Amino acid sequence: MEAFKEELSRVFCLSKVTKGRFVEEENITLEVLGRRIMHLKAFYGRKPYWKEWVELFHIDPEFFGSELEDKLYRILSRYFRRIFVEYYEDKRTLKELISGMPPEKTRLGLKLLALGYRFFKDWYYPEGWMEGGCKLQAEK
Q1: Which pTM does this prediction carry?
Q2: Are strands 25-32 and 35-43 parallel, antiparallel or unpaired?
Q3: Domain span holding position 9
């Protein structure tokens, strides 16, 4: 997925890129002007796990609602059919989900819906120990 990283590097500094648990997985730290914005875990797919996915976590609260947020989601939507976004620092989405709003109607959900994502799941109660914090999952 060199094209993905090349496109990403036009907007963000990829300050750290390391191999993940599998050959098809990478860990990427995004920065802007020397400030860490978030970490990405990207899985590019392999048989029998053909569907690629990306997870965004440890996200700087100022990222949510910014122009960078829109740019990043547009890039990710071109390369990944499954996305997981940790939302506990996105105060508006967090409040909307706690109030019972369907995930696709939240601030974050509407952004992903506009990019072609259709299936949504709120991972407020992670199962196991590797999932991390609460996140919104969206799939095309």
Answers
A1: 0.92
A2: antiparallel
A3: 2-139
